[in-house]
Specification:
The chain has about 180 residues and is an alpha+beta fold. It has six helices and four strands. Belongs to the UPF0316 family.
Length: about 180
């Protein structure tokens, strides 16, 4: 058994799929220059790895190692993207009461630098406060913890916005970019 060959097959497919996962995430986030550049490297690596396996199909372990590199590459690619945390999330927090005395979460969030849009709503069990909060994805977990620490009964939904324009947030981001 040629362990050097098996390692090369694994490493090449691992690199290919890790780059594939990252390129897909970059494409979805709108990185129009870096995503195609990553894809050039990705496809070159792919052809190398696939040709190594196809030239040696007589040994099924080669195919297994290729598939293992694929699986591990996806896992690592996802972890890398989670660490990079590209983009923004929009969080909707629905709180159980609409009285300002009962709920000071909007002020706490604003004091922590978040832009918050607050509105009233009617739920099954009465009045609700709806908070719309935009945050960098890298701050997502801290935002959830902050919300839950102030209002443990909050119902939280998040999604990734594709386009952001105007408002408190874009002014804040522009100021931050000008300082850099």
């Amino acid at each position: 058994m040629d362990f050097k060959l098996l390692f090369m097959i694994f490493a090449i497919n691992f690199a290919y799929i890790t780059l594939n996962t990252l390129r897909f995430m970059l494409t979805m986030k709108g990185y129009r220059i870096i995503a195609p550049l990553v894809s050039m490297v990705e496809i070159t690596i792919y052809i190398l790895g696939l040709s190594m396996v196809l030239d040696r199909l007589d040994d099924p372990i080669n195919l297994f190692v290729y598939a293992l590199g694929y699986a591990v590459g996806i896992s690592v690619g996802i972890k890398i993207e989670d660490k990079l945390a590209l983009g923004y999330i929009m969080v909707t927090a629905i709180l159980p009461s609409n009285t300002n005395e009962d709920n000071h979460l909007p002020k706490v969030l604003r004091d922590n630098g978040y832009g918050v849009t607050q509105s009233s709503a009617q739920g099954l069990e009465g009045e609700r406060v709806v908070l719309e909060i935009l945050s960098p994805r890298k701050n997502e977990r801290q935002l959830y913890q902050l919300i839950k620490s102030v209002e443990e009964r909050a119902f939280i939904i998040s999604y990734e916005p594709k386009y952001i324009s105007g408002g408190f947030w874009t002014k804040k981001v522009r100021k931050r970019q000008q300082r850099q």
